[in-house]
Amino acid sequence: MDELKKKMKEFGNKLYYSFFRHRMDNTGLTKSKIMFSNVLLHIQPVKIHKRSVKFKTTMGLGLITFYLFLILATTGILLMFHYVPSTAIGPDGLPDAYSRMVNLRSNVFWGDFLRNMHRWSAHGMVAFVALHMLRVYLAGAHRGGREFNWVVGCILGLLTVFLSYTGYLLPWDQLAFWGVKVGTEIAKIAPGGALIRAVLLGDTDVGAEALIRFYVLHVAVLPAVMGFLIAVHFFRIRKDGGLARPADTSKEKQIPDEEFGEVKNNSVFKSARSYKLVEIVKGNEPKVNEEVDQMMFAWPKLIVREVMVFAGLMVVMSLISVFFDAPLEGPADPNHPTNPAKAPWYFLGLQELTSYDGFIGGVVIPGILAGGVMFLPYIEIGLETFTKTYRKNIPGVWFARERNLENALFIGMYLFMLTLIIIGVYFRGENWAIVYPWVEQAAGGGH
Fold it and tell me: 130 in helix, strand or coil?
């Protein structure tokens, strides 16, 4: 019997080590191996600065945005099993694409919940991308060597909007059809817009060709491009020194060491880094700009916090999806336009601008804002260089006094676009006339 127990233990050890290359003891070496050897965790560093786990550093906005992308990918794949991108009229007298939406509501187990989760996560991702960019800028985290990653983030923001927009058409109801039609009409105003519109629609108007092209973009092209750029974005965060923080955090209140647990071989991993080139060159090792005493292992405290954020997000999105149904109007009818026909809410600011002047409101102002925001770090560097102001940049410091003007202008831009969106959503009625939301209006439009 003892021999059998010994062999069973040996077999268990071999089985365990076939999955995990390390034990789960509380040593610095093991904590390092856990991060290195896990395909999901190794993208993150073994050790991070204590400030990185504090809520005020990022408020979890970028993490939530990434989690919403994962939720969208998962629910989107499940929805693909029940969707056909076709406008052909089926036996029930409805277009196939619209009929599948109705079928999700009534005949597919949890189908309505899946669609709601996908729809609200898409809207949430657009909103959190905007909040994440605002947080990065107000904390000065777009500077200090992070300029290129800001550009990557801006591209991801634009792709997020486009991803949501391409999915907007797929239900093929009145809301989707006329919302996309408004957006593509706005696109014609821009230089080369007619060609872009023709490529997207594959025809002169929104129809069967547009549906299949939007479907391919939504489920294949854009997710693949975004997945690659998200990986680049995460990679650059690591290579640019982790999350932005002030040069000296010694005066800040940090999370106490005891909260991170005891590390048995602590002395090894708390020692200063040495980069001395032994037997190659003479001289002392270079000074490394790192607060060694403020570093902590990412496992398990950082990972636990990330899991908690994901769990909380899932709870919130599930509750929203249970109590609020994604809108679905009647099947798309090109002969009976809704009045007012409104683009999705994240395009309503652009639609509102366009209503005042097609070219200036639809091309000039959005172009200046989009291009200016994307290359804002380099514009700041250029101004500092040519004016010889050399203002002190403080990455990781919220509302740094040296950046009052830049922060005020950036917040002003956000408030400007938010005001336009609110006007478009609540204060525009038939024929784009000003209405008041507290006065009952006829049905139509939507967002």
Answer: helix
Phi-psi region of 110 (alpha: psi -120 to 50; beta: other; left: phi over 0): left
pLDDT in tens, 12-69: 877 877 766 666 666 666 767 666 666 666 677 777 777 778 888 888 999 999 999 9
Q: At residue 275, what are phi and psi to the nearest 5 degrees? A: -120, 25
Tokens of 432: 């784009």
Contacts 24+ apart (CB under 8 A), 180-186: 180/206, 180/210, 180/214, 180/343, 181/205, 181/206, 181/341, 182/341, 182/342, 182/343, 182/347, 182/351, 183/343, 183/344, 183/347, 186/343, 186/347, 186/350, 186/351, 186/354, 186/362
Give the residue among 165, 154, 131, 121 at the shortest CA–CA distance from 346.
Answer: 165
Task: Please tell me the distance from the alpha carbon of residue 319 to that of residue 35, in angstroms, as a whole number.
Answer: 33
Identify whether the C-beta of residue 167 lies closer than 8 Å to the C-beta of residue 343.
no
